[in-house]
Design a protein that fits this description.
By secondary structure, this protein is of the alpha+beta class. Helix content is about 45%, strand content about 25%. The strands form 7 sheets. It has a 4-stranded antiparallel sheet with strand order 6-5-7-8. A 4-stranded antiparallel sheet has the order 12-11-13-14. A two-stranded antiparallel ribbon has the order 1-2. Strand 7 and strand 8 form a beta hairpin. Helix 1 crosses helix 2. The two termini are about 20 Å apart. The relative contact order is 0.12.
């Protein structure tokens, strides 16, 4: 219940920011073009808050937080006096109307640059995309990818972390191949071609790189103890740093993961450990402690294993200065725009399943999870959604900004506007298509969360 409330709150804040900036783009350019703005609303439906500004515009928050609008004076809707005709929207030149409508999506792209600029200024804690184990007979194995190699790029997408790898691979969905540039453990830079003709990717159960057989690098954890906590069950039982665990209650253990499983399942029990100490095997009776966890009471020992050293600079803070952060924010925004356009194209061609469309529930979950992970992760999610909102609004559907821009482009070429009858028919068709897409996205949400 608490998670649901947090997701809803995060969703409202996220959508509110995106819609406010989008509508402010329309509003700001309209005012600069001399158009009278009657209402600036974030949200639809009954106003839960409103205020009339000195400029005569009513600023309000609607009860339904799923969008917003800027209502401008328009002779096609309002009774406009002769004195106000020059400040009505429809009386403006086609260039001004084009600029006013295009300003909404542009504002979303500007917001994405600004948000990413802030994110890179704060710094993003991240790890380099170093390859761990490769699954046998996988696409990655057939391409001869090597454990310990660092991914430098996926096609044209720079891969400074795993999120970038995911972004590059997402844009390759539906392609026959993708080229990955790597730095091998020996330090040489190589390229590998991955054959994607048989690639099947389920975003609900796996990551893009996981579906290719690539696992994230994890340092090797050995069964030797590097540290025994003071006054812990291990310390009380006589275990010492330098001991290597060979078996527990007669079961041979050759991985730290198995040792952890046995300990977690043995809360309050006495187990017989066989350890190697100073090249001599000996048995130690260990009383496992107890500890509360999210899954109930689990066993607790109080030891730290020896682990393989991390690669140089494996963990780093991805941070830039004032101008560097701005340039990186613009570069990242362009990458997101390119990937978004590619994904829409692949949805239309059928290379990407429509099951990948996300509705409000998925967006709410993403907003809540990213906000829980930290402010910089929320900024990253906000930038991604802002770019997607801008791109979607530029689609040439009449009820969207992109549809209006198509009409204005035709008007500019023909020298006269498209007839109202044709526009009305197109608006009806566009409305049906948008409604169908929304229904499909919501049904995908229901399928994800209900089953």
């Amino acid at each position: 219940m608490i998670d649901a409330i947090w997701y809803f709150f995060s969703f409202v804040v996220t959508l509110g920011i995106l819609v406010a900036f989008h509508e402010f783009g329309h509003f700001w350019v309209a005012r600069r073009c001399g158009v009278k703005v009657i209402t600036f609303s974030v949200g639809f439906g009954r106003a839960i808050w409103k205020r009339t500004g000195k400029d005569g515009t009513v600023y309000q928050l609607g009860v339904i937080p799923l969008g917003g609008y800027v209502r401008m004076l328009d002779e096609r809707i309002d009774d406009v006096t002769e004195e106000e005709r020059d400040v009505s929207f429809n009386a403006q030149s086609v260039y001004k109307r084009f600029a006013i409508v295009a300003a909404g999506p542009v504002a979303n792209f500007v917001l994405a640059v600004a948000v990413l600029w802030l994110m890179f200024g704060i710094g993003v804690p991240t790890v380099k995309p170093v390859i761990g184990d490769i699954k046998e007979n996988s696409i990655a194995a057939k391409a001869d990818l090597e454990r310990g190699s660092e991914i430098l790029s996926v096609d044209d997408v720079e891969a400074y972390d795993w999120q970038q790898v995911q972004l590059g691979l997402m844009s390759a969905i539906g392609d026959d191949e993708t080229i990955i540039t790597l730095r091998t453990p020996a330090g040489s830079e190589v390229q590998r071609r991955l054959d994607l003709t048989g690639w099947r990717f389920d975003p609900e159960t796996e990551s893009t790189f996981g579906s290719l057989g690539i696992e994230v690098y994890q340092p090797e954890v050995y069964t030797e103890l590097s540290q025994v906590e003071a006054d812990s069950p291990a310390d009380a039982s006589g275990l010492k740093a330098g001991d290597t665990i060979i078996s527990i209650d007669g079961e041979q253990v050759d991985s730290w993961e198995r040792i952890r499983e046995i300990i977690a399942q043995s809360a309050g029990q006495s187990l017989l450990f066989t350890v190697e100490r100073n090249s001599v095997e000996q048995e130690v009776s260990v009383q496992i402690g107890e500890r509360e966890s999210q899954n109930g009471v689990i066993g607790y020992l109080g030891v730290v294993p020896v682990t393989e050293p991390l690669p140089d600079n494996y963990v780093f803070n991805h941070q830039y200065g004032f101008f560097g952060g701005l340039a990186k924010g613009a570069e990242k925004t362009w990458e997101l725009m390119v990937v978004s356009v590619k994904m829409i194209g692949k949805l239309l061609t059928g290379d990407v399943s429509v099951k990948n469309l996300a509705g409000p529930l998925s967006i709410a979950e993403g907003a809540g999870v990213s906000a829980s992970n930290g402010f910089v992760y929320f900024l990253s999610f906000l930038a991604l959604l802002s770019v997607n909102l801008g791109i979607i609004n530029l689609l040439p559907l009449p009820v969207l900004d992109g549809g209006h821009l198509v009409f204005y482009s035709i008007e500019w070429v023909r020298g006269k506007p498209v007839s109202e009858r044709v526009q009305d028919v197109c608006y009806r068709i566009g409305g049906v298509l948008v409604f169908a897409l929304m229904a499909l996205a919501i049904s995908n949400d229901i399928a994800r969360f209900a089953f």
